Amino acid sequence: MSRDELGAWLRLILTPGIGPVSAYELLRVFGRVEALFEASPAALRLVVSPRQTESLLQAPPLWDGLLSRTLAWLDAATPQQHRAVITLGDPLYPSAFLNLDDPPLLIHALGAPAAFAALQNPKTLAVVGSRNPTPAGLDNAFAFSQHLAEKGVLIVSGLARGIDGAAHRGALQGSHSQGAPVGTAATLAFVGTGLDQVYPQAHRELAQRIAQQGLLISEYPLGTPPLASNFPKRNRLISAFSQGVLVVEAGLPSGSLVTARLSLEQGKEVFAIPGSIHSPASRGCHALIKQGAKLVEKAQDILDELPHLLPVLPLLQVASPASGSLSEAPPPFSETSTEKFSEPFTDGLKPTDPDQAVLAALGYEVVDLDTLQARCGWATPALQAALMRLELSDQIAPLGGGFFQRRGLA
C-alpha cells in the first residue's frame, strides 16, 4: 500500500460524522479511497449530507500524526515479525467480517509472517469467559484450549485477564505438543486498543508470545487507549471470525454473554461449561445452557459437534532460536501501565485478605490440601490456620481425606 493510499484510509476513519454506512457508500460510488478526497463538493453531496461533505473536505487534526506513527510502526517490521494494515477489499481481509452489518474498514495485524494465512482460516473456535474466574475456570480454559490446539484448532480470544489469558496460554502450550499438526498457528488475539499498546499490561509477555506464534489484530488506530466502549465492539469480530464459541465462565451480565449472543445471531454454535450452582461465575453459562447452548464436559464434545474443525491446514512454522525471536526485534508495544506480569493461574485472582485468598483459590469445586497449597503458595501452617478460621465461620466444609469445599449459599 502506498503512503497516499494509507493516508486516505486513515483520514476516512478519522473523519467526524462518517460512520460505516456512509463510508461504504462513498467507497461504492468513488471506488478508490483516494478519490473521496479528490472529489468536488458537489460530487460528495450526491452521496452524503452537506455536513458530512464539509467534514470530508477538512483534514482531521490528528491525521498527520497518525499517518507518521503508522508508517513508523510498519517500518519496524522484521523477518520474524510482520506488521500490516489490511483494508476492506485486500485479499488478506477476513472474508468472515463481510457478513457483519459494520465490518471494519481496516484492521492492523502483528505476528509471524506465515501466520497471516490464518486470517482466512475457517477452523477456529473462540474461547471466552470471566475476567475474574475461579481457579477451576482458569484450569478448564487452559486445558480445553491446549487439547483443541493439539488437534489443530485455531483458538481465538480477546487477551483480557482471566479466561482469555488462560485460553491463549493453553493454545500456545498445545501448539508445542508432539501431537499438534506441524506448522499450525497457535492463537489469534483480537484486542481493544491500538497494536502499539497492550492491555492489560500484565499480558505484555503473553502478547509477545502470541506475536511469535500467531497474530494480534485490532480495528483501532495506533495510540488508541483501552476505552471501555471498545471491548464490547471488538467482541463482534471474535464471534464473526470463529466457527463457534466456548464460554468457560461468565457472570450475569458479562461481555462473554455478548459474544455468545452475537455468535447465535450469526448462526454459530455456542458451548458452555457448567459449574457450581453457588458460583456467580457459573450463572452466565447456566443461563446459556437453558437457552440452548450445548453443555460440554470435555474438549472432545466440541470436536464431536463440529467435526469440520479438523484437520487444519499448515499455517505457521514457529521460528527456532537460531532463526531469531521477537525479543531481538524492536519492541512492538508501548508502555501503558505499571502493572506486572502475572502467572497463568493467578490471572484475575488478586484478593488481599488471607481468608478471601484461600476462598478464591478454593473456588466452588472440591479441592484437596495439596492443590490449595500449590494455588496459594503458602506454608502448611498458615494455610491450615486459614482453613480452620473458614471452617469455624461456616464458610467451608471439610469432606475428609484432606478435601475441602465451600458451603452452599442457598
What does this structure look like?
Helices cover 39% and strands 12% of the residues. It is of the alpha/beta class and 410 residues long. The chain folds into 3 domains: 3-62, DNA polymerase, domain 1; 83-328, Rossmann fold (3-Layer(aba) Sandwich), CATH 3.40.50.450; 351-406, Arc Repressor Mutant, subunit A.
Count, helices: 16
Strand residues, percent: 5-15%
Biggest sheet details: 9 strands, mixed
Radius of gyration: 23 Å
How many separate structural domains? Answer: 3
How helical, in percent, are the residues?
25-40%
| Number of DSSP E strands | 12
Could you list the spans in which at least 5 consecutive residues all have pLDDT below 50?
312-330, 335-346
What is the CATH first-level class name of the largest domain?
Answer: Alpha Beta
Which fold name fills CATH's third level, the topology of the largest domain? Rossmann fold
Mean pLDDT: 85
CATH architecture of the largest domain: 3-Layer(aba) Sandwich
How far apart the termini lie comes to: 61 Å
Strand order of the largest sheet: 1-2-6-5-4-3-7-8-9
Order of helices and strands: HHHHHHEEEHEHEHEHEHEHEHHEHHEE
